[in-house]
Amino acid sequence: QVQLVESGGGLVQAGGSLRLSCAASGRDFSNGAMGWYRQAPGKQRELVATIASGGTTNYADAVKDRFTISRGNAKNTVYLQMNSLKPEDTAVYYCNARLMQITVAYNYWGQGTQVTVSS
User: With CB atoms 3.0 to 4.6 Å apart as the test, which of 12, 62, 90, 115 could cross-link to 16 if both were Cys?
Assistant: First the structure.
């Protein structure tokens, strides 16, 4: 059974920093991509950042130069360092892990961790 467990969310003032962590178990994601998505109240879930197995990263324009995604040595962990946080970053942040089998993508999600940025 695949599990993705996030941690590190919380309440922070604008301009502050938080570091999210996600540990995946039950499958080997070393050859897959991992990433972070977020969903604010009344809005759709959106991509924050992804990192491929080879280390290539992709960021949403709204977080470029403020957030940094990285993977642990075991490759089944992913981190999101969030600096210069803004109130509009307030959302539930979800960890994602993706495996490709030929043309089929298998997505796995964590339960989410709340990030609240006060002004």
Answer: 12
